[in-house]
Write a structure and sequence with these properties.
about 220 residues, alpha/beta, about 40% helix
Amino acid sequence: MSFNLYFVRHGQTIFNHYERMQGWSNAPLTDKGISDGYAAGDRLENIRFDGAYSSDLQRAIQTAEFVLSRNKQSGDLKEPEQLQQFREQFFGFFEGLPSKKSSQLVAEKNGFKDMDTYSDLMTNLSQDEVMDAMHAADPTGDAEDAQMFWARVEKGLAQLRRNTREGQNVLIVSHGTLIRNLVAKYASHERAAEKPENGSITIFEVSDEGMKLKTYNDTTTKW
């Protein structure tokens, strides 16, 4: 059995615009963020979706609604089913802090040298190592480590496998770090070092053999 997962990163939020850490925090979409959602919908308008999901965070729900509102092939499918399992990574103490400041604190706490930005951490460490380092640096201990994150996300993927049939297409509107983590796990660290843009499209083919990355961070193709 195989089917396709169309991951869309939510539209730009205020926190994205001001480069602040945004995991489970709910910042509103900007005007650009609304446009990101509609633009993704325009590029996916001719794909028949047999199911549509989003994380249960407002920025993902709204983006999914924008995408589905432009779709011409999916009939009455206009609202996503919300799955907590596809939330963004939880950044704990670092939620809402400037990204650069958070990265500096994580690097200092873990003894990493010359890693001043989140991009530095993502480039020089594996995705799982970044999550573990953030958890270790969180004075509250609330930030998700790799084990916590994957226990949650794998439950969501298992649910999709149970609910999806051969040849179907499924829309999932989710989050940048979650998508990068999937790319790192099922494709390569080198691909995941590239940050997915707001409104970008990433496609996986899911089969009995696993997940195969077909498209990553696409912002131009019309399917």
